[in-house]
Write a structure and sequence with these properties.
Blueprint: H1 17-41, E1 45-51, H2 57-65, E2 73-77, H3 83-86, H4 92-95, E3 104-108, H5 117-120, H6 126-145, E4 149-156, H7 159-171, H8 181-187, H9 190-204, E5 211-215, H10 219-235, H11 247-257
Parallel strand pairs: 1-3, 1-4, 2-3, 4-5
Helix pairs in contact: 1-10, 2-10
Length: 263
């Protein structure tokens, strides 16, 4: 498997607004069709998203889930574990959030915090976070063996673009809630994070659950690429043909509605 290196994903190629809106609508419709198949066939999917601060994770998730049925869609925004969660194995809190039959679960940051922030900020002993790679691979292998499809996306932005967005968040009043001291703490450790990210790719980009890196300096292009990647993973091997109408349901509906249905 080709090694993933972040400097290979710094293409700032953009997309025209009209093209973006047209393509986005088509992708959102495709996701609706996939979700309908998951609901009717009792399938499960996971979308795991990592990336730099201000890389556009929230914007991608908002567009990806905008037209999905919220009753069968869960978005989990992952922050530091609570005191109670720290009393358990680090994967325990994620087991609580796994999708049930017919559901798609989206994780805004993930179990990879074990080998990222816990490694970089020395929050966990080295022997524990290093063991995390194998534990994560086993965790994901269990989900895949149980029929869960897993799409793992990493949004990459350059330092120049991250700085522009961080400044914008301060200068735009309604965006200030999106930023804080942690953004600047993490920014100062960029080289350490690059090393941690690339080790993560090397150790956990597996055949059954590979990492997909998205060049995200252009938000619109990144959203399209991200949704396309999710569609490719969640639709693999899934029957997306429209289900037939039950003959008895048709009979009852035609009688009740007083029409002959054009099916």
């Amino acid at each position: 498997m080709t090694k993933l290196r972040l400097d290979d994903f710094e293409d700032a190629t953009g997309v025209k607004r009209a093209d973006y809106e047209q393509r986005l609508l088509k992708l959102q419709y495709r996701l609706q069709l996939i979700q309908a198949a998951y609901i009717t066939q009792g399938l499960r999917g996971i979308v795991a998203i990592e990336g730099w601060d201000a890389a556009g994770k929230g914007g991608l998730i908002a567009r990806m889930t905008a037209d999905l049925d919220q009753r069968f869609t869960n978005v989990w925004s992952i922050s530091a574990p609570t005191t109670a969660e720290r009393e358990h194995h680090f994967l325990w809190r994620f087991w609580q959030r796994l999708p049930a039959r017919r559901e798609i679960a989206v994780f805004d940051r993930t179990w990879y915090g074990r080998v990222l922030v816990e490694r970089v900020d020395k929050l966990t002993p080295k022997h524990d976070w290093k063991r995390g790679y194998a534990e994560i691979n086993d965790f994901e292998a269990l989900q895949c063996a149980d029929g869960v499809r897993i799409a793992k996306l990493f949004l990459h932005i350059t330092q120049k673009e991250q700085d522009r967005r961080l400044r914008e968040r301060l200068e735009t009043p309604y965006k200030r809630w999106k930023t804080g001291l942690d953004d600047y703490h993490n920014r100062a450790r960029r080289d350490d994070y690059i090393e941690a990210y690339e080790d993560m790719f090397d150790r956990t980009s597996t055949k059954i659950a590979p990492w997909i890196v998205i060049a995200a300096d252009d938000k619109k292009a990144a959203r399209l690429a991200g949704i396309e990647a999710v569609i490719a993973v969640l639709a693999e091997g899934v029957d997306l043909t429209y289900p037939p109408v039950d003959p008895e349901l048709r009979r009852v509906a035609e009688k009740a509605l007083g029409v002959e249905l054009d099916l």
